[in-house]
Design brief:
Blueprint (H helix, E strand, L loop, with lengths): L6 H13 L62 H6 L26 E7 L2 E6 L2 E6 L3 E6 L2 E6 L2 E6 L3 E5 L4 E5 L2 E6 L2 E5 L4 E5 L3 E6 L2 E6 L4 E5 L4 E5 L2 E5 L3 E6 L3 E6 L2 E6 L3 E7 L2 E7 L2 E6 L2 E6 L3 E5 L4 E5 L4 E5 L3 E5 L4 E5 L3 E5 L4 E4 L2 E6 L3 E6 L4 E6 L3 E5 L3 E6 L3 E6 L3 E5 L3 E6 L4 E6 L3 E5 L4 E5 L3 E5 L3 E6 L3 E6 L4 E6 L3 E6 L4 E6 L3 E6 L4 E6 L3 E6 L4 E6 L3 E6 L2 E6 L2 E8 L2 E8 L3 E6 L2 E6 L4 E6 L2 E6 L2 E5 L12 H10 L3 H8 L21
Antiparallel strand pairs: 1-2, 2-3, 3-4, 4-5, 5-6, 6-7, 7-8, 8-9, 9-10, 10-11, 11-12, 12-13, 13-14, 14-15, 15-16, 16-17, 17-18, 18-19, 19-20, 20-21, 21-22, 22-23, 23-24, 24-25, 25-26, 26-27, 27-28, 28-29, 29-30, 30-31, 31-32, 32-33, 33-34, 34-35, 35-36, 36-37, 37-38, 38-39, 39-40, 40-41, ...
């Protein structure tokens, strides 16, 4: 990087510019001659100051001139400026023979090396190769190169070169010119041209041009937008619009005219007066001029005037219908139809012949009927030998070789299905019998029902009593008070004395729900080890065996809660707690406000009137209170009967000895055995 210019260089440079004292540089290369006149006599260029390399090469180089600074231990680049050049004296080769660090000009920016620089604010001049830059900030800037000249004289920018010429006066006009382009901007007017593209516009009046094969024209005052390319085109001129692509063409005048056509179909619409739709595959043409319509589909044609007349023509049939006159006529090779208000005649090879008059109706064919509607109907079918007779509203009869149905209202109804079932009903008695299985059901009006199968029976008195018994299930219900249901397949029982008693059991899921409304509630899930019992509002008992939790409340006298190894109970003014944790087992009892006491594996304490008199021993430490004043007592002696720590118990059990027992064995004596349950020696020791 370049070293900063010192104060002496800056002062001498200013004197040179003001008084034109001539060249002050003792050495350096002359800059390239320029055709334009110079601002001041060109001094000799200072030795190039190049950026320091990343890794110096060991190749010996001619030493650079050194600055006259005796404290610098290493060769340094000469500072820029004429004063530095006059004060620098090249040292002799014998003075320092160390290799010169390699400097690579332009290694980072790829710019030519700096051969000359002069800074005398606001004046600056710089020479890099054949490029010279001169500036008087902020009024003047100039950069000269063999094939390019840029100059800025506030407020005018000027550029001339082989690739681009530019003129920008006052910052309000831009004129850029080159071998293949020409751009001119004088807001709001602009124009641009290059090899393939051109633009012209005067916003907001108009804008047009072609860019990369896509053309556009926008004229907002005329509501005009046109754009597109070789394949697509969009045009909007006021209400007129036109879209075109490779396959289809849409155009119209909004909202009156809509047109579309492509290789397959098309439409034309002038709502609400004219509509036409055309499709080539399959060939279809529809024209609508309300109320007239005309439709063609392949070899079929129809037309009409809604709602007066409708005409349809096909190769099989030609028909005409006049709805308001109740008239219809159709004729074809295999069918004929004539319908009038007085008589109707229908003839068909498939359906036969049918005559219809206001008094008599007749049809002959595969299915036949004679009728005097609405009093008499007689039908028969020669194919399945079935027939029917109806005399509304008293007599209905249908019969075929396998079925027979007869109804004579209000006396009897009979439904017979050969080999399946037989059912008859009278106003008082009814019976159903199945021929496929041993099953019968009897009804006795108005409420009795009795039925049975091979292994079950049912008795009902609607809507009060319902009894059913079968191997897989049973029920007994006396509505609305008593209900008893049992399903032996699903292993469930449900018993209800409404609304007081409810008992639901599921033996497969091991659940039960028992309610004596509204006081007793008992729910149990044995599989999940969960119980819920409430004697409202006095007793509450919730237990979860998986989570090891329980809560009991005999309100307001007794409260008991369990969570894991911790149990807490409150009964009036007494409190009891028992728990087990990492430090061992503990319990405590409080009879408020008189006394409390507690004990653990390594502690014991008692208290009267919360400190009037108390004693507390925790490990070796002991403390007493008299009239609520604490006194620390002397540490208790080691209690031989105290439980040893789990680690000592495990060590003694696994290794079979402790430091003391090991010493005893060396002395030939037997160490006392340790009880793993209590942690005490086997010898009897009084506490």
């Amino acid at each position: 990087m370049y070293r900063p210019v010192n104060a002496r260089v800056l002062v001498l440079a200013c004197l040179m510019v003001v008084s034109s004292v001539g060249p002050l540089f003792a050495q350096g290369s002359e800059p390239a001659a320029q055709p334009e006149p110079q601002v001041s006599p060109e001094p000799p260029a200072a030795p190039p100051v190049e950026p320091e390399p990343q890794e110096p090469e060991p190749e010996p180089q001619e030493p650079e001139p050194q600055a006259p600074e005796p404290q610098a231990p290493e060769p340094q680049a000469a500072p820029a400026g004429p004063a530095a050049q006059t004060a620098t004296k090249p040292p002799s080769p014998e003075a320092d023979v160390r290799p010169k660090p390699q400097r690579i000009s332009g290694a980072i920016t790829n710019d030519p090396p700096l051969s000359y620089r002069l800074i005398a604010p606001p004046f600056m001049r710089e020479q890099r190769g054949k490029v010279r830059t001169t500036a008087i900030f902020p009024l003047f800037f100039e950069r000269r190169a063999p094939d390019d000249l840029q100059r800025f004289v506030l407020p005018y920018y000027y550029r001339r070169g082989s690739k681009l010429n530019a003129d920008v006066p006052l910052g309000i006009m831009w004129w850029l010119r080159g071998p293949d382009r020409n751009t001119f901007v004088l807001p709001p007017f602009y124009t641009h041209r290059d090899k393939k593209n051109w633009l012209l516009g005067l916003p907001p009046l108009f804008a047009t041009g072609v860019v990369d094969g896509h053309h556009h024209t926008v004229i907002p005052p005329l509501l005009t937008w046109i754009d597109g390319d070789a394949k697509n085109r969009h045009t909007f001129i006021g209400p007129y619009w036109h879209w075109t692509n490779d396959h289809a063409d849409w155009w119209g005048v909004f909202p009156m005219l809509w047109m579309k056509s492509d290789e397959v179909d098309s439409f034309e619409m002038v709502p609400p007066f004219y509509f036409r739709f055309y499709d080539d595959d399959p060939k279809q043409d529809t024209t609508i001029v309300p109320p007239f319509y005309h439709h063609v589909l392949k070899d079929k044609k129809s037309w009409g005037v809604v709602p007066f007349v409708f005409r349809k023509e096909t190769p099989e049939l030609k028909s005409t219908t006049v709805p308001l006159a109740l008239f219809h006529h159709a004729t074809g090779p295999e069918e004929f139809r004539l319908v009038t208000p007085i008589i109707s005649y229908l003839k068909s090879k498939k359906e036969g012949r049918t005559w219809i008059t206001p008094i008599y109706q007749r049809k002959r064919g595969d299915r036949n009927f004679d009728a005097v509607a609405p009093l008499f109907f007689h039908t028969w079918d020669n194919r399945d030998k079935s027939w029917g007779l109806v005399l509304p509203p008293i007599y209905w009869h249908w019969e075929d070789p396998a079925n027979d149905t007869t109804v004579v209202l209000p006396f009897i109804g009979r439904w017979f299905h050969a080999g399946i079932s037989n059912t008859w009903v009278t106003p008082l008695v009814g019976r159903y019998k199945s021929f496929e299985r041993d099953e019968q059901t009897w009804w006795v009006a108005p409420t009795f029902q009795y039925g049975w199968t091979e292994n079950s029976w049912t008795f009902n008195i609607h809507p009060l009593l319902y009894i059913h018994e079968a191997p897989e299930k049973r029920h007994f219900a006396l509505a609305p008070l008593y209900f008893d249901f049992e399903n032996r397949e699903n292993q469930t029982k449900r018993f209800v004395l409404f609304p007081l008693y409810w008992d639901f059991k599921n033996f497969a899921k091991q659940t039960r729900g028992l309610v004596a409304f509204p006081f007793y509630w008992d729910f149990e899930n044995q599989r999940k080890l969960r119980k819920r019992k409430v004697v409202f509002p006095l007793y509450w008992d919730f237990k979860d065996g998986r989570k090891k939790t329980r809560g009991q409340v005999a309100f307001p006298f007794y409260w008991h809660f369990e969570r894991g190894e911790t149990k807490r109970s409150v009964a009036l003014n007494t409190y009891f707690e028992k728990k087990k944790d990492e430090s061992g087992k503990h319990w405590q009892f409080h009879f408020a406000p008189l006394f409390s006491l507690g004990r653990g594996d390594r502690e014991r304490w008692w208290n009267v009137l919360y400190g009037l008199a108390s004693y507390d021993k925790r490990g070796k430490h002991r403390r007493a209170r008299v009239f609520w004043i604490p006194f620390d007592l002397a540490d208790a002696p080691e209690d031989p009967s105290a439980k040893v720590q789990p680690s000592a118990k495990v060590q003694g059990a696994v290794q079979g000895s402790t430091p003391s027992t090991g010493a005893s064995r060396q002395a030939g004596t037997k160490a006392p055995a340790v009880n793993l349950q209590t942690g005490a020696n086997s010898t009897n020791v009084k506490k």
